[in-house]
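Sequence in, structure out.
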Amino acid sequence: MITTGSKWFFGLGVVTLALAWAYGWTTGGNGLGPITAGYKGGVGDHFGYAVLLTASLISFFLGLVALAVRDAEADALRQVAGTEGVPTVMPAGPSYWPVVAAFGVALVLVGLVAETVLLVFGFITLGAVLVEWTVQAWADRATGDPAANREIRNRFMNPIEFPAAGLLAIAVLVVAFSRVFLALSSESAVWVATAFAALVLGLGVFAASRPRLGANAIVGGLLLVAIAVIALGVGAAVVGEREVDEHEDEGEEQAPEDNVGGGATEQSAPTLAGSMAAVVLR
């Protein structure tokens, strides 16, 4: 019997495999190339196709693992432990990772039709969701004490989460604002950058002047700012870059005019040189 966890992974594998085929055909693939991984034709854009195909293979593998361990159900644990009684298993707590997964799927879909960078960030988000959700499900069932389970999870993931979250936040800000600045005119980009800097300064001053402000309020405010920045970046990526006028070199444009009557100029050059030589000899 197929378990619930394996159904989820198998479904994700089927969806990403279909996306890989569609992406291959829409980016220049032909014939059976996307289906046969390039054996019977082209696959289109190699990077995007490879990312989608790898995600599909990983999902199928995790589905087989979940099917083999029976989603860590109580009866399977009893058989592995060799005990007569069923071990106590704590129910899994609420999780916000499904919401993050939905956001990652939206980034992938927008990236397929807009820009590759959004596709990459979408798959990074989905990969982080897979890791975090798996670790949370494991930690929730580690012991019978929810506090101990939370401590085990934090001890295992915090050394990885903090630097990874910092790098991801920097990358998201840089990419999002680069898309916004490229979509706006040069004058508007300066004003937007100034307004965002003023907003960050204002939020910092407000948080510093309220020492009793709760951590949840600060995190909520930062989350709202992050969502607004990401939304602006995605919208600017969909709009596209502004058209930049190419200005030719003025010297090159004036060069033909200066050469009018070039014969006289060429004839005057030796005369001038001869006059200077005569002056030096005298």
